[in-house]
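ok so for the tutorial part 2 we go from a plain amino acid sequence to predicted structure tokens. step 1 is just haveing the sequence, like this:
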Amino acid sequence: MQIYQRLFKLAGNYPYMLIRPKTKTLFFLSVFISSTLLSQAHPVSEGYQKPTDPLVVQNLEEWQDLKFGLFMHWGTYSQWGIVESWSLCPEDESWTQRKPEHGKSYDEYVKNYENLQTTFNPIQFNPEKWADAVKKAGMKYMVFTTKHHDGFAMFDTKQSDYKVTSPKTPFSKNPKADVTKEIFNTFRKEGFRIGAYFSKPDWHSDDYWWSYFPPKDRNVNYDPQKYPDRWNAFKQFTFNQLNEITSNYGKIDILWLDGGWVRPFHTIDPNVEWQRTIKVEQDIDMDKIGAMARRNQPGIIIVDRTVPGKWENYVTPEQAVPEHALSIPWESCMTMGDSFSYVPDDHYKSSQKIIETLVKIISRGGNYLMNIAPGPNGDYDAVVYDRLKEISGWMEKNQSAVFATRSIAPYHVGDFYYTQSKDGNTVNIFHLDEKAEYKAPAILSVPIPEKVNPKSVRVLGVPAKVQWKKSGNSLEIRILQDRSALQYVTVIQIKQ
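step 2 — the prediction. this is what the tokens look like for a chain of 496 residues:
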């Protein structure tokens, strides 16, 4: 019981969701609880402000149609097979632990980590292969880590030599060296909406972690109000890099900003444990950044994660699914494996688990951003392609119940989950069993939403007509043929 009491205490007023940034642990009470006690949580941001720019409103509406996206964390850290960036952070947390073979002291470790730049050479990098596989699996947008907290730029920035296109990096001699350019151009050509992940904090920058002081935690290691010139230099550096990304890399649909501790001090929520570590003002001037991004990319969706206000256009629960439908735009970012970054022999979720998670997310009105991490050679693990192929087969039959849908009450009843078409003329009901292998029952007694009056009923993936009858607010459906074709989930589609 102690672990449950601790978890609820961490969640504060938000017991439905516990979220830990960039770790290997799903942290959602009603789905899974790790055997490892974790110390961090953040809620879905309060104070959501609906955008007023008509083009942003339109883009958000279209983004909510997409439902399924690809997240990719990739950097030099893939060579060590460790959690991205966090081992540089001198906080004593499980996900920041350093392996002794990578450095006996902190300073030695940092030097060796940054020297990974000199050996990064992912010669199997082939974004066309990725785009083809994930497109078939139904993904319709992607978000790529242009720069994580460690400060290593996976794009051709002119602000720093700590980048993939630097002569210090072996891959710089490759014609595909500007990794961000290659990924964005390839996925855009395949019809994907493009998202640029960018870390506001930069632990490599001497204007964020000033070498005069040792870093103490994830935050800036000096007081910006005491050293305003240094902080202003960091603000300009960040502005310049984001200007490069939004100017030089074609159409960008989403600017996905991470590192929520870089924020105006007055926005700190003392009920959130990790925000209580922020002791100084870290206002990076999001109004200036956001205005610039919108000049370069009219209508771009901006996601200033965990910082409520006009620059958090949708909210981003991490490694978690809200237990109830949310009335604001939202997206769960979750890993296909256990880690956001590449680790050898990662444990990848089954296709059934991935599809079940997708169903739960879309029934509550959200999008599913599933992370797949390329390895140091520049490719996914073979098992990833197996999963994507399996998901593709399911999507071919059931995509009409997934895309361009919205939530409908009661959202979830027992083993049944609900979506509807935007015009309300079609209701989709998903039956999950969540056992090791799904077996479609011959007879289903299905609760239906109030005021739904079926004119026709079919089971997606079953060519034969099904027998059905309505009794009150339930349907009895008999599936007498082709049940073996129903993998992972049974999808019932009702036309009104």
